């Protein structure tokens, strides 16, 4: 990994110019001081290497360099991976990610989106809890917004990376059916407050088409909290699970171990999103892979293009692949 | 989980008062409008339930309600858990966390800390990459700062939750020694740019005391990247590992599986920090547990007390416990 460069501080520029740090800061942003002072400060900053600082550059350009990254729920390990991946990719583009957690709450999501706009982020990347919220159309008028997962209703986004959940759900349910399962527990983090999320609509339709008997059960996305739900569902007699997040499937692993049930001989588990840890479990978790690296690249390319004002492709539909690893008996 | 309340928007308050949304926003912050208007807006906001919004309250109080959370490296899964835990605990205190990733780079850490201050966060929680940076003393003069992990040199922090790394390292090395290991690979994310991190100083001293032959090797904290390093170290003949993060130990699991080596009969692995996934592996990863929930509670209590101006205990030393699970043969 590259070693960090030593950068000049604003104090060193202040010392070199005989100005206060505050005056240097203003000068770098072209504010409140004379043209001559601005010129003098910029020259000193360049000599000392202060201009290499992306924040200074961002200030000079009238941008903050900050991109808001509003996550649906960071309890989910895959969303954590996505957030970290996006932040790293933004860093490679000299941007900074401000990561926020909507905690699965649509009202919180709206409040945080507004707050980020007021904090003057240059753009927003959102994995929406409530893609149908009326806020999005309003927000897109003042800020480039890129959405990941679902489209934002009626909003003119700068780009979107949409999951083909229909195919993902079909892959998962057909795999379970092929292995002889007819009765499934479907564990999803979706709450009553956002009942019409596309993935959940598909699962009902597909279960009908495939003549599967499903119980749809709400489960939290953190493995520890999902374990509690999985215990109850196992005790109710379910032995085949389709989990709408690998994080939830980890809860099924933990609860099965507690109950002395073996995967895949006693219990079958299918995940959704293919978190990096899923291949390390014994047996590995069979899951639906969305190519997290591809999502990260596409979303960051779109948001950077939107901030820079260069036109790019606006919509990518992410196709899933089944990763079979042995957790479905 | 509680269902979200429907909150009135600033637009609804604007409609009710006949003012523009901008004027309402100013009025709620007590700015630029007459006392009479401020009173009228506050009354309308209260009637419509807008005051229940923590952001509106924060604005009215002259605070943003935002707490910066500057993480050393979010590639590390445990730091991801810590960040999510802190964000959730702040939420329970009606605060919002802005999560940033210093990506292990001291220069980036400084730039982001300054940027957060300029974004007017009410306080900062930091897990420092470079606890000796001169910036911290300066920053603490303008902002309450709580540090997690190591003390900030010469800085008047609002609080600190410091790990007793000396005991943690001793627990780990003594456990490996008791099992008969004399030659160890120590995988650490510490880079040459921050050579004097206390945990690394201890490991050298303790290895000397216990007459262990150690190779200290830098490894990235993401499991995928750590796997590459682990392959090399296995190929060089090492069979016992002390990893300074469970995330790195996951890389040793992956590389061992690739090489057809079994844990713990062929390879012994010890982690550090006890990530929630460590107990789900086969065999479970033996690790050093820092009580992440206790750290989260303490740090959030300190930062909220500092913002609210109520005095509290300023320093907590976090004691580790060994979690033995079977990965050390």
TrEMBL record, chains A, B:
The entry's keywords:
DNA-binding, Transcription, Transcription regulation
GO: which molecular function terms? Answer: DNA-binding transcription factor activity; transcription cis-regulatory region binding
Q: Which InterPro entries match?
A: HTH_LacI, LacI/GalR-like_sensor, Lambda_DNA-bd_dom_sf, Peripla_BP_I
Q: Which residues form the HTH lacI-type domain?
A: 8-61
Instruction: Say which domain of life the source belongs to.
Output: Bacteria
Query: What are the transmembrane regions?
Result: none
| Pfam families, per database record | LacI, Peripla_BP_3
Signal peptide as annotated in the record: none
Q: Which SUPFAM superfamilies match?
A: lambda repressor-like DNA-binding domains (SSF47413), Periplasmic binding protein-like I (SSF53822)
Q: Looking at the keywords, is Ligase present?
A: no
Under PANTHER family, the record lists: LACI-RELATED TRANSCRIPTIONAL REPRESSOR, TRANSCRIPTIONAL REGULATORY PROTEIN
Q: What is this protein called?
A: LacI family transcriptional regulator
